[in-house]
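The pair is quoted verbatim below.
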Amino acid sequence: MSVEVVAPEVSVAPAAAEPWPKPAQAWYAIFIFALALMVDFLDRGIVGLLVRSIEQDLHLNDFQISLVTGFAYVSIYAIVGLPIARWADYGTRRNIVAAGVAVWSLMTAFCGLAQNFWQLFFCRVGVGVGEACNGPPVFSMISDLFPREKLPRAIAVLNFGFIAGTGLAAILGGTVIRALANVREVRVPLIGALHPWQMTFIVVGLIGLVVALLMGTVKEPLRRGRYSGSAGHGTLPVREIARFVVDNRGTYAPMFLGLGFNVVMAFGFSVWAAEFFRRTFAWAPADFAITSGLITIIVAPVGAIFGSWLAERFYREGKNDANMRVVLLSFLFNAPGLFLLTLAPSAPIAFGIFAYTQFVAMWVPGPMNAALQVVTPNEMRAQVTALFLFVFNIVGFGLGPSVVASITQYVFHDPAKLRYAIASVIAVLGPLGIASIWWGLKSYGRSVAKSSDWR
């Protein structure tokens, strides 16, 4: 039985009568947001390339590394994510993001000073606190900078930061690993001897502090699409937000479930990709990093633009489910590709499939994030986005690496069989993600039609 969208009575918010921000202002904000996202994923991606060095120097095993790369980073999100998002629904969102970038950058630099598992673990917890300040307020601001029909393209361009962060993490990380392959330690004034992987964390952290300063140059946009009677600076009660989400569960539940299944699969692969190529094809992490980084930077932007173009085309054709239709197509094409990649007979074939999956997977970020913003009112946009990113981070980034590590260690009992652990995760979760998005398609279309009255 389908679930109709239920929303409180709305009226046009005062900001709706104002013209949209000038394109230069809107796209400048996207540029700065993309820089922040680049630093975010530069930090995340660099850890996977340094696994071997960290394990050797700190005497860690695969499961401990999975906790550092996943659980430590996202565990705090469950505590601070929603309060920060509620603050973003009435506070100055630009300042919240700037503070978050500064915090996670400092904590990333402190990771470079870690001398044991627990020090590294708690530094990664601190990174999670800072990064909880990024997503919800950024997506809330983008929805006030661009009309809904332009959101997929704006968010696709935003995700150039994700692409650059992921690609640069691979290229720079691989270059550093190769350049310092024969260097045991580096002496730094006032700090002492540091291993190359520790220096890498410090450099990435310092880059982030520059981006935090640039965030102060972004202009806070007017809020649009508010409920009647809430045009002030107060926030809606949590119970009202919860009621809205529950009433519209036919739209939100499939979206969140589909995202959860997909990101566990995706992060389960990406965090262990360098080790997969090393253990399966004897590729050095530096060689894998540079090759995969170049593929990502070349192929992924084309995929992101294609995905946003396809969503806009569907929207012009009158399809209210345009955004989620693109997500469904991406899931359908991506899961089989990832599965075949893990079983590829040679590294060149694996890299060819990797390029294909990078193109198809990048159809998703613009349309899926736009989909959530379109069907969520302004007063709760950051908070519902926080729930969405909770699934992305806690379920995906938190569980993905550990699920793969656990299957490798406790089911196959052989590190060399990492590929089969990754393949098992994809074989189970890929179809579940596809089924979830398909289930919610009609309800999402009805939500889009009804949300047109909010502005």
Observations:
- Residues 104 and 217 are 19 Å apart (CA to CA).
- Strands lie at 186-188, 192-194.
